[in-house]
Amino acid sequence: MFPSIPVLASAVAKISTPFRRSQLGLFHGKIKQYGNNVPHSKHKTRRTWLPNVQTKRFKSDALGHEVKVKLTTRALKTINKHGSIDNYLLRTKPDLLGIEGMRLRILVREKLDIQRAEDEAAVAAQAEEEAMVQLEKEKKEAKRRRKAQVGRAWKLREAQQTIVGGVFGSTGSSTSQPTAS
Prior knowledge:
Helices cover about 55% and strands about 15% of the residues. It contains four helices and four strands, in the order αββββααα. Strands 1-2 form a two-stranded antiparallel ribbon. Strands 3-4 form a two-stranded antiparallel ribbon. β1 (about 35) and β2 form a beta hairpin.
């Protein structure tokens, strides 16, 4: 189900980032920040600031189920801006997504490609069905035209025989059937 997991696992092993946790969620470029605590005495001590990480569940329209993911509030605001997690994953730059975001992007793209192929197949089948219906209509119309043409030819032949019979004095049926004598 996850064909991209081995590829992503090997990529995780190769990545050496100072804030590796950001690769396991949607952190949207936020990383650990370093600085100093500076009290009134000006005695500086080193400290770090971690991003505001939340765990949220999002309904993915493409995947058809909820996706539970760790993300920063900045990523959450961006998801709200894009309208859905699917749009966020497809439109955001890969370097802002991280490994988890790229894994989800691959899953969403694969699902959308499958849905697009199914939709195209359905449209092609519908177009083929419409073409068959149109072909049947054309066949019926051609048959109707042939019948009408044969009917007109038959009426013309009868009219000619009536005229010929009236001119030469023959008083018989309007059809020209040979009689045996």
